[in-house]
Amino acid sequence: MSVLVNKHSRVIVQGFTGKEGTFHASQMIEYGTQVVGGVTPGKGGTKHLDRPVFNTVEQAVRETGADVSIIFVPPAFAADSIMEAAEAGIKVIVAITEGIPVKDMVVAKNYIKSRDCVLIGPNCPGVITAEEAKVGIMPGFVFKKGTIGIVSKSGTLTYEAADQIVKAGLGITTAIGIGGDPIIGTPTREAVKMLMADPETEGIVMIGEIGGNYEALAAEWIKENGTKPVVGFIAGETAPKGRTMGHAGAIVGGKDDTAQAKKAIMRECGIHVVDSPAEIGKRMAEVLKGL
User: Does 263 count as an annotated binding residue?
Assistant: First the structure.
């Protein structure tokens, strides 16, 4: 089992022939992901990376049976690409694009509510099911198969957590980089729910950061419904109030947005909080052994 993507996922790349799309599609193919084609308007009927190129997502779905799409489209057009994928029947939409205007994402998120799909991102590293499918920009070699799921707002900390988990003698089921923008498709709580429901996942790593209330809402859900141990980390402990720290959503607006406040809430809800990402793997191993 896994969540969102696996070895059977049929993936298309929106923005396929661009620089980013080309590079990361090549990496995904090398990892073993079933990339079945891509979309670049105006280039339909050609081939790229030995895969067919289509003018629209609808054509790509009809011709290839794709059920997953990854988006490498410039910010001004990315929200339209999300809606196009949802309209065409794509089940998992992964939006890598950073810098999509908030007003565009309000429209896109509202649009996909009535569609049978899951949006990951935008401004995210994507999703990887270890040794099965990589739909994103993460370094695949870091992720070894195992029983720990990862949910993270931060791309680099996703990779760091995976590395620590593997070094502790464990491995990864699926890692979900949810994205750091104010409006994203799948908040922390929803991603945690997916991993809680996955029979192969025995423990979950939850990585958050300053700003917003995603971690608090997830922690409260875990307290009421959690059936698996969760190790948590919050980035941005030393960030000054009101400062944007890399991610558009990482702005401390009030006392509950700080790293200290979030960690306190998580601890109260039974999450095993660590103060350094270097402790994630060690703590998870201890928790699974009942230490």
Answer: no
